[in-house]
Amino acid sequence: MKHFAAVALLSLATVAFASSSAKPTLTCSLTGKNIAKCCCNKMSNGKLYCKLAKKTISSCCCKPIKSESGR
Q1: What angle do CA 4, 7, 13 make, to 5 degrees?
Q2: pLDDT tens by residue, 13-56
Q3: In angstroms, how far is the first alpha carbon of the chain from the final one?
Q4: CB of 54 within 8 A of CB of 46?
Q5: Is 6 helix (H, G, I), strand (E, B) or coil?
Q6: Which residues contact residue 24 at a Cβ distance below 8 angstroms, ignoring those fewer than 6 apart?
């Protein structure tokens, strides 16, 4: 019975983590798309490559989503 409770608790925690991590928290300033994690990859020359815009950039294009509750 303890094993079942532990498995159920672990499953519940996994589902809660998966649903919270899938929410978009960033916006790509080049494409305007909301994303869950940064879309920039660091290249060997020190520059960044935005996967969404398919462009080489000098600084990260991802910005936090602004809360609309501040209106």
Answers
A1: 140
A2: 655 555 555 688 999 999 999 999 999 999 999 999 999 999 99
A3: 50
A4: no
A5: helix
A6: 34, 35, 36, 65
